[in-house]
Amino acid sequence: MNPSSFKPLVGRAVAAVLLIALGVAGGLMWERTRQPPAAGPDATATSTDERRVLYWYDPMVPAQQFDKPGKSPFMDMELVPKYADEGGDAASVRIDPSIAQNLGTRLAPVTRTDISDTLQATGLVRYNERDIAIVQARSGGYVERVARLAPGDVVKAGALIAELLVPQWAAAQQEYLALKATGDADLTAAAEARMRLAGMPERLIREVKASGRVKDRIAITAPIGGELQSLDVRPGMTLSAGQTLARINGIASVWLDVAVPQAQAGRVRTGHAAEARFAAFPGETVTGRVTAILPSIDPAARTLTARIELPNRDGRIRPGLSAEVQIAGTTETALTVPSEAVIRSSSRALVIVAEDNGRYRPVEVTLGRQANDRTEVLSGLTEGQQVVASGQFLIDSEASLQGVLDRLSTAPKSGAPAAPLHEADAVIEEIDGEEATLAHGPFESLSMPGMTMVFPLAHPELARGLKPGDPVRVGVRQTDDGLLVEKLDKRGSAK
Q1: Which residues of 133-171 are buried (b: 16+ CB within 10 A; e: fewer)?
Q2: Which residues, other chains included, contact 418 with Cβ-Cβ below 8 Å and sequence gap of 6+?
Q3: Phi and psi angles of residue 57, each rounded to the nearest 5 degrees, phi first
Q4: pLDDT confidence band for 157 (50 / 70 / 90)
Q5: Eight-class DSSP state of 85
Q6: For 356, which DSSP code?
Q7: What CATH class has 421-489?
Q8: Using 50, 70 and 90 to split pLDDT, how confident is the model at 142?
Q9: Cβ neighbours, 10 Å, residue 263
Q10: Neighbour tally for 78: CB within 10 Å
Q11: Which residues contact 360 (CB under 8 A, 6 or more apart)?
């Protein structure tokens, strides 16, 4: 190549390099112009720290933590970040509103509603033992005739039971009629008094005075209508004064004995209205009232008996029938929450109170009566608060993850002693910051034999300096979720 041809090539190369350099410089200048001014070091640190992610977790399995986002291995859902600024109040927990909505969390207000002491129970019909008639012989005599009756028959008031011959009454009647014929009023009055003293009923005396004839055969009739429970006379029998001839139990009303559980015994009072429904009469309701509360309690069933008197005008309600009973108590206005909002355990009752900014606080409450779908709250809440009525499992899981419920359970209560610490010797088989597998000896105070099992740790520091194979002295405390390790001392001997 000759020098004359080389010079144009060099010139074009230099021009290309200059163009490239100018393009790079222009790009850098444009990039600087589009970037916002750099924030000061304090602002950057604050912004980064406020939304710093501690870990990711599955709300359905909150105890499992992950160091990066992704799909949950347990459920078909994305992992949720746990931010450093979500610590907040140690007695509450924050749930992202979108997560709470997706999982069906529903709130309900704490309101004052009318609540009654209505009691549902079962009862058994028996005779009204205040409606009993005993038929007796007022004087000695003889049984002439007996009506065709047998125990168990239903008789009407005034029905013939037996016909008696009473010689003493016949003699008294003859004396009265003879003195009456003399016209002596004083003697006639004395003879009439002797008939009464002999036991003659007023009805018979009136018949003798009206007819002027001796009635030597006396008809014994039923004083009330009802069931003939006993009939102790036969034709030809000789009777003595005061001997029982028959027993009749009235059936115009019956008793319904209702078994009231001892926990609800205070809700029933004498005079309360009651409604009974019998399987024998579907669709019909019989109304009565509580007439008595029996003082004794059935030692086997632990129930109190409330006695209800029911009308039985047609005689259909028979002793031995069972009934479903509703006893209406007093109606009062009380502070209530939906019954589904209450989380019950063996030692306490909780509700989850919704606060501002997506925070939820477990609150221990004292419960009272329950009616329909609402439960009375005696203490722990105020009117107008919002409680979680459904989806509590999400709040409960998150609260357990952050230890809110543990702090609630260990909070000091006036007059309430702390749960005892139960100790035993053990050997560590596996241990991490959350739980330990221990081969332990017997917990004498729990009457629990030695075995190998997994225990949750109250805090991760308990595992510090311990490894599998170490003999320890373990202390556990009984909680609502089981035994919790609160002590691990590397000084016990293995057993």
Answers
A1: bebebbbbbebbebbebeeeeebeeeeebbbbebebbbe
A2: 410
A3: -150, 165
A4: very high
A5: G
A6: G
A7: mainly beta
A8: very high
A9: 9
A10: 12
A11: 92, 93, 94, 95, 352, 353, 354, 388, 395, 398, 399
Name, in order, each residue with C-beta under 8 angstroms of 216's C-beta and a sequence gap of 6 or more.
165, 166, 167, 169, 170, 173
Between CA 124 and CA 177 the distance in angstroms is: 55
Confidence of residue 3 (pLDDT cuts 50, 70, 90): very low
Over residues 405-437, the pLDDT tens digits come to 555 554 444 444 556 788 999 999 999 888 899
Which tens digits make up the pLDDT trace of 66-105?
888 888 887 677 887 876 655 545 456 676 777 667 767 8
Nearest CA among 242, 256, 250 for reference residue 326 = 256
Class of domain 132-249 (CATH, top level) = mainly beta
Question: If DSSP codes are grouped into helix, strand and coil, which group holds residue 476?
Answer: strand
Q: Where are the domains of the chain?
A: 1-32, 61-117+330-418, 132-249, 263-322, 421-489
**Of the candidates 174, 210, 204, 214, the residue with the CA atom closest to the CA atom of residue 191:** 174
Say if 61-117+330-418 and 132-249 have the same CATH topology: no
How far is 292 from 309, CA to CA, in rounded Å? 9
Under CATH, what is the fold of the domain 61-117+330-418?
2.40.420
pLDDT mean across residues, the chain: 80
Half-sphere exposure of 175 (CA within 13 A, CB side): 15
Q: Residue 381 contacts by C-beta under 8 Å, 6 or more apart in sequence? A: 110, 335, 337, 351, 353, 363, 365, 387
Separation of alpha carbons 14 and 198, rounded Å: 158
C-alpha to C-alpha distance for 291 and 327, rounded to whole angstroms = 12
**C-alpha span between 339 and 138 (Å, rounded):** 65
What integer pLDDT is reported at residue 4 of this predicted model? 47
Q: How far apart are CA 229 and CA 313, in angstroms?
A: 19
